[in-house]
Amino acid sequence: MLRMHCEMLHSMGYPVVVQVGSGVAALELLQRAPEAHDVIVCDLNMPGMDGIEFLQIVNKSKYCGKVILLSGEGLRILHTVQKLLEGGRLIVLGALQKPPQRAALRALLERWQPQAPSAPVKPALSFSPQELRAATRHRQWVLHYQPKVEVRTGELAGMEALIRWQHPVYGLIYPDAFIGAAEDCGAIDEVTQWVLFEALAQLVRWREQGLSIQMAVNVSMENLRAPDFATRVVALARASGASPQNVTLEVTESRLMSTSSAPLESLVRLRLHRFGLSIDDFGTGHSSLAQLRDVPFTELKVDRGFVQGARHNQIIRPILEGSLGIAKRLGMTLVAEGVETEDDWHLLREIDCDLAQGYFIGRPMPVNQIGQWIESWRARRPGLIGPSR
Ligand code: C2E
Ligand code: MG
Ligand code: MG
C-alpha cells in the first residue's frame, strides 16, 4: 500500500516522496527536519502507535505542513478523525479510503497551496448593553435580504431579513458578533421589535409593487420568553397591514429551552394567528427532533452542514434525505440553507426539496439591490430548472 502511494505520487510529478513504516519512524523524521515536509499521507492503522496518537503528537510539534488521512476503516471513522483535528494547528486536506485511488489523491493535493496567504485576522469585538441600546437609538441597524427560491420552478418564494449593524467606527458588523450579547443583556427585545417593524413594512411595500412573496424574520429564544411577545407581534402585523400568513418566524435554539413554558406558549399563540414557524439550523445545537415533536413548526430549515457537498457525501446525504422525509410526513416545508454550488442545487432537485437558499442563488443584500438580483436570477433560472446534470 505504501509503495503504491509512493509510485502514484512520483508519477504525478512530486519528486521527493519519503516512506516510513511506523509512527515512531515518522516522528523521528519530522523532529529532525520539521520544515522539510509539505504533506503527510497518514494511514490511521499503523504498527505500534495508532494514527490518532501520531497525529496528536504532530499537532503539538513544529511541523507546519498539511495532512491527508488514509484508512480502510470506512468513511465515518475518517470523518470523525477529520473533525477531531479541525480545531488544532494541523490542516487536513481530506481523507482517502483504501485501496488508493489516483484521482482522489490528486484532487486532495490540488487543495494544497504551499504559499496561500492567510486571511487577515479581524479582532473579536464585544459590546456593552449601553452600546447596543445606543445603536437602537441612533438607528444604526440595517436589514439585508436573502432570497429563498422554489427548487422545482426556480420561482422566488420569499426573502429572509438578516440584521447588520452599521457601526460608526467598525463599519458593517455581522449578527454573530452582537446577537449573543443582545440576548444576554435583554437588548434583543428592542432589536427584534425594530427588525419586525422594518421587515413587515418592506413586505407591504413589495406587495404594493406587485411582488407577492413571503418574509422571514429571525427571532431568538430570549424573545419568546417575554410573556407578551406574541401579543406584540400580532399588533405589529396588524398595524403594518401585513398578513401573518406571509410571515415566517425562524427560531434558532442556541440555548436550551428553559423549563418555563413561556416560549412554547408564544410559539403556539403565533401559530394560532397564522404566522409560519421555522426551525432554523435544524440538526445542530438544540435544534432537534424533540423540538420538532413539541412545537407546531411549519418549516424545517436544515443546517448548511447537511447541505453543502451532500451530493457526493455518503454521510450527510442520507441525513438530508431523511430530514426531507420527516418534513414531508409532518406536512412541513423543507428549506435547504447554505446552497453554494451547482452540485448542491442539483441534488436538491433530485431529491425534490421544497425551497433553497444560499450564496449560489443570492447573497444577503441591501434592499436597493433586489431589483438587479431579480433580473439576473430571471436570466439564470431557465438553465437551472432543466434536467439535472
Ligand atoms: P441564520 O438565520 O441561519 O442565517 C443564515 C446565515 O448564513 C446568514 O448569516 C447568511 O448570510 C449566511 N449564509 C447564507 N447563505 C450562505 C451560504 O451559501 N454559505 C454560507 N457559508 N453562509 C450563508 P448572517 O447574516 O451573518 O446571520 C447569522 C445568524 O445571525 C443568522 O443565522 C441568525 O441566526 C442570526 N440573525 C440574523 N439576523 C437576526 C435578527 O434579526 N434577529 C436575530 N435574533 N438573529 C438574527
Ligand atoms: Mg434564519
Ligand atoms: Mg440557519
List the helices and strands and how they pair.
Blueprint: H1 2-11, H2 23-32, E1 39-43, H3 51-60, E2 66-71, H4 75-86, E3 91-97, H5 102-110, H6 129-137, E4 141-150, E5 156-167, E6 171-173, H7 179-185, H8 188-208, E7 214-220, H9 221-225, H10 229-240, E8 247-252, H11 262-272, E9 276-282, H12 289-294, E10 299-302, H13 316-329, E11 333-336, H14 342-351, E12 355-356, H15 370-384
Parallel strand pairs: 1-2, 2-3, 5-7, 7-8, 8-9, 9-10, 10-11, 11-12
Antiparallel strand pairs: 4-5, 4-12, 5-6
Helix pairs in contact: 2-3, 8-10, 10-11
Bound molecules: ligand C2E and magnesium ion (2 copies).
One magnesium ion is lined by residues 280-281, 301, 337.
Structural description of this entry:
By secondary structure, this protein is α/β, with parallel strands linked by helices. It folds into two domains: 2-109, Rossmann fold, CATH 3.40.50; 129-384, Alpha-Beta Barrel (TIM Barrel). The protein has helices at residues 2-11, 23-32, 51-60, 75-86, 102-110, 129-137, 179-185, 188-208, 221-225, 229-240, 262-272, 289-294, 316-329, 342-351, 370-384; strands at residues 39-43, 66-71, 91-97, 141-150, 156-167, 171-173, 214-220, 247-252, 276-282, 299-302, 333-336, 355-356. The strands form two sheets. An eight-stranded mixed beta barrel has the order 4-5-7-8-9-10-11-12. Strands 1-2-3 form a three-stranded parallel β-sheet, sandwiched between helices. Strand 5 and strand 6 form a beta hairpin. Helix 8 packs parallel to helix 10 (229-240) and helix 10 (229-240) runs parallel beside helix 11 (262-272). The structure holds ligand C2E and magnesium ion (MG) (2 copies). One magnesium ion (MG) binds at residues 280-281, 301, 337.
